[in-house]
Amino acid sequence: MTSPSNETILYGIPASPGVSHGQVFRFLHRDVEVLRYDVQEDDQDAEIARFEEALLETKEQISKIRDDVARNLGEDEAAIFDAHILVLEDKALIDDVVSEVRTSGDNVEQCLHRVTQRYIDYFGQLEDEYLRERASDLKDISRRLLGNLVGATAAGTAFLEGPRILVSEDLSPSDTASLDRSKILGIATDTGGRTSHAVIMARSSGVPAVVGLRGLSGTLNDGDALLVDGFEGIAIVNPSESTLFRYGKVGLRRKKIKDLLEEEASLPPSTKDGSKVVFLANADSAEEVRKARSHGCEGVGLFRTESIFLRKNKIPSEDDQYEEYRKIVESAEELPVTIRTLDLGGDKILDSIGREKEENPFMGFRAIRYCLRNPDVFLDQLRAILRASTHGNVKVMFPMVSGVGELVRAKECLSTAKRQLRESEISFDSEIQVGCMIETPSAVTICDMLATEVDFFSIGTNDLVQYLLAVDRINNEIAYLYEPHHPAVIRSMKRVFDVASEKKVGVTVCGEIAGDPHFLPILLALGEGSLSAASPMLPELKFFARRFSMTEAVELLKRVLRMTRPSEINQTLKDFYEQRVSDLIS
Ligand code: PEP
Ligand code: MG
């Protein structure tokens, strides 16, 4: 929709609450746009010198990745990067690019693109599989070289002069982890869903975000004005004065609400009739733990350790991990911290591991599956977690468990790590509690069997919804089918709570549902347990909890369990919320 002021309103999916307005920064992390311009003969030497510099820079980057991979995963896995370095040293290729610059009079980016494309086309049509694969090496290398030539790398926010609204076709968790968050006012992407990991990270750091804005990034340039409304899922290009005024008023009101919620955040968490509620936080850094504690959380319910791997863009050593875990555990002081073992895969890809692209990454080589096949990586992590356990109250948890066998093998690895530490006389909490995520339909079905192996469950609704409903959590084409209100989801959670109570194991809900105030009453009514949510959501959850009684929550759950349609459940929870917090909404 375009107004006379050239304002354009686009509708997407609200992903992280908040409103921000500022200049656009187009984040290029995929294919770099290859510009073409003339270069005078006198300037051709400088152009070739730029190419040589980019070759050196790229070689250094790849050598570093190669060494990390060799150290952490072994020489076989590192071999692919040797092939990449050989490409960068290939005299024929370099000479071809230099001669293209001399003869065509075009800029080096364009010449590099043309030459590598010729090679890629040639290799790509060969019969020999090994040689055909060289085409994909070349593609990777030329993308990195072009990135270095135009200065558009993944960590491209470092050079920004001031904070900007980041606009991108797509945003991966490793992109998000590498961003300087002080430079990001808001995020607007063409693709993605509410529970993609990039969005979860944005929500934890309180950055407003809208996703699924199909085609937006292609229509904007750096410096354009953009307003992001993460409450409603709206992006406004070139907002008019009256829009800014309206949003200014909305902003003032939101600020008042925020102040009110924060004032009450220090009150003890309970329902209106005094039932105690345990709120934990999903936190990935000591800073987030401090923030969450100021909102009155009673511990860290989910520490996604892969965030450290993604930030460093490599597999950190045992010592490095230990230091990171220790910082978080110490910042929580005596409060419990549930450290989840590595959940790489799905949309959380570590470039430096250089893994094959998967057809169905969310159903693929992910989380505990990866760890059990890479025992060195897993044992390093388990020892680091155990060592950190002496500094506070640590629990360890395994993600993506789909069967008892996996859980037993993971626990065997934990026992091996304990034995290794004992042999080296390194102390740890020998009574450390062990839990598993319940986030696959099979885990729900056999949770009674899993219960005999663990001290606690943690329900990961982000994955559970996608697997129960067979709806990819990051695909915005089918985002309308990703329905956390589906009766299958609510029944599954009920089963897990019932079994947990019967088998006397703890239970937490740590997916994004736990941070959605609309769900709060029915989650509390499911039974004794705790909720772990992004820290910015805690004040509102606590505020709402004080406005209904447990009796009302149980009644509401009973009604919801009889409903057949997600839309009806959604509306019922919304109405219940709005009636109770009408003073806040009006
Ligand atoms: C979940 O699946 O709900 C969860 C908490 O894990 P993640 O979002 O990291 O997959
Ligand atoms: Mg999960």
Description:
This protein is of the alpha/beta class. Helix 10 (286-294) runs parallel beside helix 12 (318-331), helix 12 packs parallel to helix 14 and helix 14 (375-388) crosses helix 15. The chain is globular, with a radius of gyration of 26 Å. Strands 1-8-7-3-4-5-6-2 form an eight-stranded mixed beta sheet, with helices on one face. Strands 9-10-11-12-13-14-15-16 form an eight-stranded parallel barrel, surrounded by seven helices. The two termini are 28 Å apart. It has three domains: 8-30 and 155-254, Phosphohistidine domain (Glucose Oxidase, domain 1, 3-Layer(bba) Sandwich); 41-150, Orthogonal Bundle (Enzyme I, Chain A, domain 2), CATH 1.10.274.10; 270-585, Phosphoenolpyruvate-binding domains (TIM Barrel, Alpha-Beta Barrel), CATH 3.20.20.60. Helix 15 links the parallel strand 12 and strand 13 (433-438). It is built from 24 helices and 16 strands.
